[in-house]
Structures are given as structure tokens and as C-alpha cells.
From TrEMBL:
<protein>
    <recommendedName>
        <fullName>Thiol peroxidase</fullName>
        <ecNumber>1.11.1.24</ecNumber>
    </recommendedName>
</protein>
<dbReference type="InterPro" id="IPR013766">
    <property type="entry name" value="Thioredoxin_domain"/>
</dbReference>
<comment type="subunit">
    <text>Homodimer.</text>
</comment>
<dbReference type="GO" id="GO:0004601">
    <property type="term" value="F:peroxidase activity"/>
</dbReference>
<dbReference type="InterPro" id="IPR050455">
    <property type="entry name" value="Tpx_Peroxidase_subfamily"/>
</dbReference>
<keyword id="KW-0049">Antioxidant</keyword>
<comment type="similarity">
    <text>Belongs to the peroxiredoxin family. Tpx subfamily.</text>
</comment>
<feature type="domain" description="Thioredoxin">
    <location>
        <begin position="18"/>
        <end position="167"/>
    </location>
</feature>
<dbReference type="Pfam" id="PF08534">
    <property type="entry name" value="Redoxin"/>
</dbReference>
<keyword id="KW-0676">Redox-active center</keyword>
<dbReference type="InterPro" id="IPR036249">
    <property type="entry name" value="Thioredoxin-like_sf"/>
</dbReference>
<feature type="active site" description="Cysteine sulfenic acid (-SOH) intermediate">
    <location>
        <position position="60"/>
    </location>
</feature>
<dbReference type="InterPro" id="IPR002065">
    <property type="entry name" value="TPX"/>
</dbReference>
<dbReference type="InterPro" id="IPR018219">
    <property type="entry name" value="Tpx_CS"/>
</dbReference>
<keyword id="KW-0560">Oxidoreductase</keyword>
<comment type="function">
    <text>Thiol-specific peroxidase that catalyzes the reduction of hydrogen peroxide and organic hydroperoxides to water and alcohols, respectively. Plays a role in cell protection against oxidative stress by detoxifying peroxides.</text>
</comment>
<keyword id="KW-1015">Disulfide bond</keyword>
Amino acid sequence: MVQVTFKNGPVTLIGNEVKVGDQAPNFTVLDNGLAPVTLKDSEGKIRLFSVVPSLDTGVCDAQTRKFNEAAAELGDNVVIYTVSVDLPFAQKRWCGAAGIDAVQTVSDHRDLSFGEAYGVYIQELRLLTRAVFVVDATGKVTYVEYVPEATDHPNYEAAIAAVKALA
């Protein structure tokens, strides 16, 4: 299992580690209007899942803005999701204030379905650890990064390159 820290302290991740080559696990999260979102909803598209502990923190804010900016160069066949346990209402408010319009924020607060399916649920904090997953149009995982220290930035360039390699 993946080992990560949060503010340099070890944490327990619940769920299954996802690896390159795996079929992407299904999940159910909520969009900003409380409608369910599943993996199947974006079937046939390239997906980038940017997983963050909370949009209301500096690194999570920067990560979401970075992928929002990258969306323009990645094309219409790419869907970018930011997944957190923030409430859908808070995500909607944050996106409006931050001018986020190319990334879809989805909330895993209700069931931690994404968190457990992708092995990113931090048991001690009821937050998701920072990670990035790229899934191709057929549902195969082609890129995985579990950020070793949850308060650090992911490798943006590698994740974006992984998406471009599929486009």
C-alpha cells in the first residue's frame, strides 16, 4: 500500500492502491448541483482526476488553478475533475470566486466512494490525500501519482504530459 504523510506525520490510507495498467475503478461522487457523477459519465473521454484535501488551502487552490489553465491546451476530448470531500456548495462558491470554469469539481463527502476506490481516503482526517490519476478513453489507468507528502504539489508537468500522450 502507498505510504503518505500529512504535515510530515504518517497517515492511514483506506482503499485499494490504483496502478498504471489497472481498469479505473468506478465511483459515485456529487457535482455542485448534488447530482451523482460516476466514471461512466465521462466514458470515451480522457480523464484527469486531480485529488485534493480541501479547495480552501493554498496548495489545493494552486493545483486546481493549474489544471484549469492546462485544460485549454488539452482539448475537448479531455475531462478534468477535482475531487475533494468539500461540500458541493463550498466547491461551487470556491469555483465562482476563483474563476474556475474548465475543471469540474466533485465532492466525495457523502460516501467516500472515490477515496476508497482509489486508495486516497485518509482515515485519521476524513480527507483525501493529494493524488493525480489519468484514465484513457477505454477506462485504463495510464498515470498515477500519490504525492508522498499530502501538503506538497504534484508533478503537474508529468500529469499533463500523460494526458497529451493520449490525445
